[in-house]
Amino acid sequence: MKLSRDWLSDYVDLLDLSTDELSTRFTEIGHAVDSVERHGDDTVFDLEITTNRVDAMSHLGMARELGAALGREMLNVGPALQPAPGRPRSRSVSISIEAPEMCGRFSALVVRGVTIKPSPEIIRRRLEAVGLRPINNVVDVTNYVMMALGHPMHAYDLARIADAKIIVRAGKAGEQMRSLDGEERKLDAETVVIADAKGPIGLGGVIGGADSEISDSTRDLVLECAWFNPSVIRRTAKRLGIKTDASYRFERRVDPNDGPHVLDLAASLITQYAGGTREELIDVLPMTVAPKVLTLRDAKLHEASAGVVGAAYALELFRRLGFEARIATGGIEVTVPTWRGDIHEEMDLVEEVLRFFGLNHVPASLPRVTIGDAHENPVITAEDTIRDILVGCGLAEAINYSFIPPEHNPLFSDEQPVTITNALSETIGAMRLSLMPGLLDTVVFNRSYGTRDGAFFEVGRTYHRDGDKVRERHRAGIVMYGSVGTHWGDAKRAVDFFDIKGVVEQIAAKLHVELEFAAGDEPWLRKGKRAVARHGDARIATLGLLASGLAKGEVYAAELDIEALLAATGEWKMAPVARFPGVPMILAMTHGLELEYRRVIETVRSLDVPYLHEVGLRDRFPTQDGVKTTLGMWYQAFDRSLTQDEVSDAHNRLGERLAALLPVKLLSQETR
Fold first, then answer.
1. Closest CA to 545 of 563, 531, 560
2. pLDDT, tens digit (0-9, with 9 covering 90-100), for 535-587
3. Antiparallel, parallel or unpaired: β 176-178 and 103-112
4. Which residue, of 379, 434, 471, 617, is most buried by count of CB atoms within 10 Å of its CB?
């Protein structure tokens, strides 16, 4: 906003300050200087004024700031602003407010017998200095008063107001009005309208109407100064695409109580420069706004200023700013004038004091931090551990939104999802029941950029209904597609079921959880290539190949329940390292598709084979008659070295007993 030094000097003495000193002072109290330029004999400052400080968007308001910062009293109104004498007459305009929720106050004053002509030099020069174009002595005075006091106002030609009646109401559907810029404006029920007996003559707080504007033939006029609901003005200006000096101030909340003073100054200037006689003030007040009374505690001021600002400084500052302040028990009682709509609570008073005292004068110190009785969160710790494991397995972490399109949840769960009632768009209308939708979006995104191979994971939360509440579940999701290679020199191979299973087993092994795998039944995974991992009765993970309708190509996926995994974590026990070497053996067999690998392993472990320390899968692939499965065995004793005969004898008996218990055909039993 542009402010004239000459104009500011009407309100506060600035003679002994250079332009640089004044610029520095503006910046110190929070009004950064964008530029400084000369305008004839005047200096114009272009300041950045924060949007909540509409009181400072005027020469009087900024002079009040400077007076407080410089410790100087405000001056009397300068000669150009001296009120001209006028003889009050009876009211000749009727005013009614039909929409008090839109307009909280409407003040008006009639001036009769004016002569429209160019404004005097002082008015024209000051308006041009702050970027406004002079028009005539009446319109210029309304703009002048707005820039002087900060409250927009408007002038109507009384002869063009039907039945001398002004009605403040909401717009009606189908209504139109030609505004001062020549545009036809469509009105609606959310627009505050200034109307006469025939129809709209202005858009309240935004722009006047062309049918009631001041012209060279105007002799009698009505001056208006109102207070409009800021949100109403903001919506109207945005809908119509209009941004005026008036709307900019009204939508930021001007002073609701200075209307009579604004009209008094405007009428005085008009009768001084345009002649005429003023009538009695008309003030319609459907609502009142009283000043706020706040208390600034001595202890709070002492704490915020590190003990360097006392109550005496704050008391004097508030007085210079135009606040009423008095010493009260334990602090200062401050009555905040209604022009300071940005001050609501005690901390605002503290900021006001420190802004003028200077934050650079307050000793800097680190805040005192107390951690209290801190407790480790096992779930968060487990999540971090799982992240480390998955990164170590070569996967990249993805982070997706917790809200997803509602149609994605039924693909992975039959639960009733938690919906978002105020969703910004339909694509984020529900909270996720699974991590899979987000991970599949990640796969699609990477494939769209030509990434044919990928392995991603996400550790996050899903959201589930629990009566009237929402319960969060901690999950880990994994997707793998394309090819993998164990070493830079090895040929790549396609990702398969055992890759995703191996990753799940790595997580379980690191957390010391024994898993049992069985065929799964999840419909979002392909039949014959899906599994569920359990620990006892607890379901830990679901994994397998995604159903063909969910993804193009083969994408293997797994989802783990971290809370169930954490609950299954057993006691971590250390085992002694064997001093004697072990003997590896293999056991190859063929069997039908109906025989699950889990049943084979459970049977081997149930036989209590001497010295059998470990058993696991070495190879498994389909054959013409069924499946070939090769098991790897590790025989070891902790007190001596086993002989080959001992191992072979135990291993052969194992094969014979296994063939007797299961429908398998043994192929070989030999050392690995």
1. 531
2. 999 999 999 999 988 988 999 999 999 999 999 987 777 778 888 999 999 99
3. unpaired
4. 434
Note the residue count of the chain. 672
Can you tell me the distance from the alpha carbon of 389 to that of 557, in angstroms, rounded to the nearest whole number? 17
Please provide the DSSP assignment of 232-288 as one string.
HHHHHHHHHT---HHHHHHTT---TT-HHHHHHHHHHHHHHHT--EE---EEE-SS-
> Which tokens in the block code for residue 77?
């109104």
473 and 413 Cβ atoms separated by less than 8 Å: no
d(CA 169, CA 152): 19
State phi, psi for 639 to the nearest 5 degrees: -115, -10
Cα 220 to Cα 92: distance, rounded to the nearest angstrom: 11
| pLDDT at 479 (0 to 100) | 97
Predicted pLDDT of residue 487: 61
Identify the helix (H) or strand (E) that includes residue 200. Answer: strand 200-203
**How would residue 37 be classed by pLDDT, with cut points 50, 70 and 90?**
very high
What's the average model confidence in pLDDT over 400-421?
A: 92
Residue bearing tokens 């003040």: 107
- Helix count and strand count (H, E) for the chain: 17, 33
pLDDT for the residue 578: 83
- The Cα–Cα gap between 435 and 401 comes to 10
What percentage of the chain reaches a pLDDT higher than 90? 82
CB atoms < 10 A from the CB of 207, how many? 23
What is the four-CA torsion angle of 202, 204, 208, 209, rounded to 10 degrees? -10
DSSP assignment of 566-609: HHH-------PPPSS--EEEEEEEEE-TTS-HHHHHHHHHHT--
**DSSP code for 359:** G
Measured at the CA of 286, the angle between CA 284 and CA 289, to 5 degrees, comes to 105
Please name which of 611, 617, 601 lies closest in space to residue 647, comparing C-alpha atoms: 611
Nearest to 412 by CA among 428, 430, 429, 436: 436
Distance separating alpha carbons of residues 179 and 243, to the nearest angstrom:
13
- Quote the tokens at residue 300: 């709070």
Q: Residue 595 is encoded by which pair of tokens? A: 């025989």
Q: Which two tokens stand for residue 247?
A: 């709307």
Q: How is residue 209 annotated by DSSP?
A: B
How many CA atoms does the CB half-sphere of 507 hold within 13 Å? 33
pLDDT for 5 beyond 50: yes
C-alpha 536 chain-centroid distance: 44
Helix (H) or strand (E) holding 294: strand 292-297
Structure tokens at 127: 């308006």
